[in-house]
Amino acid sequence: MTENINSFLKFEIIWKDDDMFEVKINASNVKFYGETEVYDTSDSLSQFANKLIDFPKNEKIIFYELGSQNSFSYCSIRFYCIDNFGKIGVELNIEENVSTEYRTEEKSKVKLEIIVEPSAIDRFQKSLLNLATKQHGIAILYGKDNRPDI
């Protein structure tokens, strides 16, 4: 599904139990790509999705973290306005799972930015809320460079 697109952020639930689920997160801005698997809960993901409603109207920056930095796995996502013309930046910090003693030298990390439009965030917000409610499926935020008129 993401093989022929440019920049994106993708959430996919790959495991769940009664208390939590595991989300596979991957993102690319064409030049850089990162992937990790992080645990989350329906309540946490729903709260994040609800913050994205009408972004950036109500808030100018939204920050969300999954996992723990410099630990087993981690992802942070920061949404922010780039200009007053609807250009929005999404900064991602992704750390890959490490199953051994957590040596910082062996841990893979990537930081990247994708540029998105408000309409893409609206679609992503609805997909995230659906993901949190049903605890299965995929939510994708498409970067601005995926528009057919570019």
Please describe what this structure looks like:
The structure is a single chain. With 150 residues, the protein is α+β, with helices and mostly antiparallel strands. It has one domain: Roll (Transcriptional Co-activator pc4, Chain A). It is 18% helix and 41% strand. The strands form two sheets. Strands 3-2-1-8 form a four-stranded antiparallel sheet. A four-stranded antiparallel sheet has the order 4-5-6-7. A hairpin with a 6-residue loop joins strand 4 and strand 5. Helix 1 packs antiparallel against helix 2. The longest helix is centred in the C-terminal third of the chain and has 17 residues. The model has no long low-confidence stretch (mean pLDDT 90).
Corresponding CATH architecture: Roll
Identify the overall geometry: globular
Poorly predicted segments: none
Spell out the helices and strands N to C. Answer: EEEHEEEEHE
Rg for CA atoms: 15 Å
**CATH C-level:** Mainly Beta
Mean pLDDT: 90
CATH topology: Transcriptional Co-activator pc4, Chain A
Secondary structure layout plus pairing:
Blueprint: E1 8-16, E2 21-28, E3 33-40, H1 42-51, E4 61-67, E5 74-81, E6 88-95, E7 109-116, H2 118-134, E8 138-142
Antiparallel strand pairs: 1-2, 1-8, 2-3, 4-5, 5-6, 6-7
Helix pairs in contact: 1-2
Main features:
150 residues, alpha+beta, Transcriptional Co-activator pc4, Chain A, four-stranded antiparallel beta sheet, globular
Q: What does this entry show, briefly?
A:
The chain is α+β, with helices and mostly antiparallel strands and 150 residues long.
